[in-house]
Design a protein that fits this description.
Length: 394
């Protein structure tokens, strides 16, 4: 039976890791996989994580199961990052620990399908490549619209509103909370308000993918748009990832928060989320949850974590500004990167140009032209700019 399977193409970004490692060019630059890197190209374990792990190793007295919604102390510790310390939502929020942000997106999509078998999800393009197969595997119909006009390097807000106007009640709308992947281009707060009001008027359900909280401006500012949606839309789903902001990538830790209209539906929502989690993995792994909980509940650990996160964010923003200061290179206006946020920028390059940069100049990026700015340092930016100029020669 298994012989019916045809080999699928491998992940184009993960495939770059091996190619990069095998490249002998000392000037090579890795702008591919979306993980934070320091000035030396390393993705370190945060010091706050190391301290939390040492404490957990010492204090953990049982590894018995938690329920399908995971470690409740973790959910209590993370919720204030999303909703603020004194959340007016508290009675309406249902939380579930998930297997990374991806797990949260998956549960959210399945929950939407449980509520509405006919639901479509509106996804702006370009987006994180995993969104589309993930939502479609969960049973959502995919409807796409152009979010970002790559050629002109700007958000197509009119196009977005026009597309969402044809949404139906019970459809889901995917939004990136901040640090849009792959473009770095976020809506401004007035645009968020317009989108939120349209979603509310249409009776649609926002799903806010929050994978980079703290890596745009700071922890407080990066949830402002999300909180604005919560204040204007009666029901919302939030997929929160601790992969990037805690540097816990392979520990697979995230959370799904579902905000219902009122507290009354909470236990029904919770029971369905737990059921969906149970059917896939029964209960989530605890290590990442224990680490995040230890950090957020110990003032000294939390202070250290915030300072490390601020340092990473400042480094990314500094690389962004340094690259932006080079202005126009061929048809690319690097200056537009200066007002964008997060680890990513989308360069308007053809696949041929991306391949040429990789094969001839040892610069590795996603086939879409997405670059991870954390792969830059002050010494390799001039080489990148000169390489772009070569690739862009007409
Ligand atoms: C936009 C976006 N959403 C979700 C995720 C998933 O994160 P996680 O590794 O926590 O599953 C990523 C990871 O790159 C992402 O970029």
């Amino acid at each position: 039976m298994l012989e019916v399977l045809k080999e699928l193409p491998s992940d184009s970004v993960l495939g770059l890791i091996k190619l990069f490692a095998a490249d002998p060019n000392p000037q090579k630059i890795d702008l591919g996989v979306g993980v934070y890197k320091d000035d030396h190209g390393k993705t370190p374990v945060m010091a706050a994580v190391k301290l939390a792990e040492a404490r957990i190793l010492e204090a953990e007295s049982s590894k018995t199961y938690y329920g399908s919604d995971g470690n409740s102390a973790f959910l209590d510790a993370v919720a204030p990052l999303v909703f603020g310390e004194a959340s007016p939502m508290s009675g309406r929020v249902v939380g579930c620990q998930t297997v990374g942000g991806t797990g949260a997106l998956q549960l959210a999509a399945k929950l939407a399908v449980t509520c509405n078998h006919q639901a479509a999800i509106w996804v702006g393009t370009p987006t994180w490549p995993n969104h589309l197969p993930l939502f479609s595997a969960a049973g959502l119909e995919i409807k796409t619209y152009e979010y970002y006009d790559a050629e002109h390097q700007k958000i197509n807000f009119d196009g977005m509103i026009k597309a969402l106007q044809s949404g139906r009640a019970g459809d889901v709308v995917l939004l990136h909370a901040c640090c849009h992947n792959p473009t770095g281009a976020d809506l401004n707060i007035d645009q968020w308000a317009e989108v939120a009001d349209l979603i509310a008027a249409k009776g649609m359900l926002p799903l806010i993918d929050s994978a980079y909280i703290g890596l745009g401006h700071n922890l407080e500012q990066d949830v402002k748009a999300l909180q604005l949606v919560l204040s204007r839309v009666p029901e919302t789903m939030i997929a929160f990832s601790c992969s990037k902001n805690f540097g816990l990538y392979r520990e697979r830790i995230g959370a799904l928060f579902v905000v219902g209209k009122d507290g009354q539906s909470s236990s029904a929502i919770k029971s369905h989320i737990q059921y969906l989690a149970r059917t896939v993995y029964s209960t989530p792994p605890n290590h990442g949850a224990a680490v995040v909980t230890a950090i957020l509940t110990d003032p000294a650990f939390k202070k250290l974590w915030v300072s490390e996160l601020v340092e990473s964010t400042q480094r990314i923003n500094s690389m962004r500004q340094q690259l932006a200061s080079h202005g126009k290179v061929g048809q690319i206006d690097l200056a537009t990167l200066g007002s964008q946020k997060g680890m990513f920028a989308l360069l308007p390059l053809s696949v041929t140009q991306v391949n040429m940069l990789r094969d001839e100049l040892s610069i590795y990026m996603a086939p879409s032209g997405r670059v991870n700015l954390a792969g830059l340092n002050k010494d390799n930016i001039p080489y990148l700019v000169s390489a772009l100029a070569k690739a862009l020669v007409p």
